[in-house]
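Exercise 7b. Backbone tokens:
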């Protein structure tokens, strides 16, 4: 598949705060992120705070950045203690949701069968789903990364027609690089992103694969963001720890925006 022009898709930078911050700290951080997002309109910014702070941060965002949930239930409502539905995310002014983050796939044992149902609920609610895929260190070292990414995509997207996936974003996040300080080289990341596009083209169409944003998540930081984003296959990043530092995250946002001006 031919590589795209770096100007074809709007870069996306997502900040996954995981189980961090307080309400006050989250609001302070959000104000700084809003300023950085407004200063770099060429990039789209999305923040995924802890559930209790979603409504307050969504109100503060005021259109400067998207606010999303770190997960949503595979169910619409009912006796599911501790779960949060896609409809509830919409009700708190969210516009996006993470599906299948590695800490849920590998830490909580979420299967592709569960994730395809979560994806369905997100689509029904009108959320922008960010579907996460990626291999473990053992899988990479045994040369199975391509097969793992392909299988995760096929399993998680099963039953979803192309027409329903207009807002889909794929986040490639190698499990071995999340929170470890290790980062895939731009070439390694780009190779994985090409695998994603090859699978999307096989499942749907070359046009769909070409227009779907694929972002990198695996210890993205202020120092390596520009190198990663300079590669034409990488459409931005899903950022963990660095998204909790206002200055670092602003640098990452600026690096994503800069690719549109190259």
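Sequence design result:
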């Amino acid at each position: 598949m031919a590589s795209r022009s770096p100007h074809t898709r709007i870069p996306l930078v997502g900040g996954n705060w995981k189980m961090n911050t307080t309400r006050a700290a989250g609001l302070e951080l959000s104000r700084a992120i809003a300023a950085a997002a407004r200063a770099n309109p060429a990039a789209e910014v999305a923040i995924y705070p802890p559930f209790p702070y979603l409504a307050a941060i969504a109100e503060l965002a005021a259109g400067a950045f998207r606010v999303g949930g770190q997960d949503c239930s595979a169910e619409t409502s009912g006796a599911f203690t501790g779960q949060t539905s896609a409809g509830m995310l919409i009700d708190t002014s969210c516009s996006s949701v993470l599906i299948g983050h590695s800490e849920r796939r590998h830490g909580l044992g979420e299967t592709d069968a569960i994730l395809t149902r979560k994806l369905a609920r997100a689509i029904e609610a009108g959320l922008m789903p960010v579907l996460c895929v990626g291999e473990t260190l053992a899988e990479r070292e045994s040369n199975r990364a391509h097969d793992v990414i392909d299988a995760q995509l096929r399993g998680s997207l099963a039953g979803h027609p192309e027409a329903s996936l207009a807002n889909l974003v794929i986040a490639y996040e190698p499990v071995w690089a999340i929170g470890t300080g290790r980062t895939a080289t731009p070439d390694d990341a780009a190779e994985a992103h090409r695998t994603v596009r090859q699978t999307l083209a096989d499942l749907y169409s070359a046009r769909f694969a070409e227009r779907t944003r694929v972002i990198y998540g695996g210890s993205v930081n202020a120092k390596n963001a520009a190198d990663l984003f300079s590669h034409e296959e990488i459409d931005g990043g899903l950022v963990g720890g660095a998204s909790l530092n206002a200055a670092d995250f602003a640098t990452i946002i600026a690096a994503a925006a800069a690719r549109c001006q190259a």
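Instructor comment: The chain has one domain: 12-245. The CA atoms of residues 75 and 262 lie 44 Å apart.
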